[in-house]
Amino acid sequence: MTSYDVTLEWPDGRTDSVAVDPRETVLDVALREGIRLPADCRKGTCTTCVGRVVAVEEDAPDEPEANEPVDAAEAFDYRRQPRALTAAERADGYVLLCIAVPRADCRVAVGPMIRAEVGDSPWG
Ligand code: FES
Q1: Is the C-beta atom of 85 inside 6 A of ligand 1?
Q2: C-alpha–C-alpha distance, residues 73 and 41, integer Å
Q3: Is there a domain that residue 124 lies in?
Q4: Closest CA relative to residue 83, chosen from 120, 42, 40, 46
């Protein structure tokens, strides 16, 4: 099966790329590769693993304007309901990497600043 390249962008400018089969989550693959992506509940009810999609690679690249939100649904499907995020947050690119499975190559910003942007989950 096809896998997708998911590049994680850390606040210090470092990047980690993982090839993720759509049958696996980004978190599962990242941990297997030794990438210390934070996680807690692993079922979409806290925001510990949240990232923000900043770019999606498409066949015909249509680069978003700087700071223009990218809908996370362009890059990810979910195995179960991402209860910790609102629909508006998902449309702004926020994605729960513990339950997200990729549908496109993409770049995702991760780290404490991203988590601070969405705040704590009411389910967490
Ligand atoms: S680890 Fe809790 S939502 Fe992902």
Answers
A1: no
A2: 22
A3: no
A4: 46
Which domain covers residue 105, as residue numbers? 4-118
Contacts of 74 (CB under 8 A, 6+ apart): 53, 56, 103, 104, 106
Distance 118 CA to ligand 1 centre (A): 13
Asked if the structure places residue 123 within a domain, the reply is no
Please count the other Cβ atoms lying within 10 Å of the Cβ belonging to residue 60: 4
- Convert the pLDDT of each residue in 63-114 to its tens digit: 666 678 899 999 999 989 999 999 999 999 999 999 999 999 999 999 999 9
pTM, two decimals, is 0.91
How many domains does the chain divide into? Answer: 1
Report how far ligand 1's centroid is from the alpha carbon of 70 (Å): 21
Q: Does residue 96 line the site of ligand 1, with CB under 6 A?
A: yes
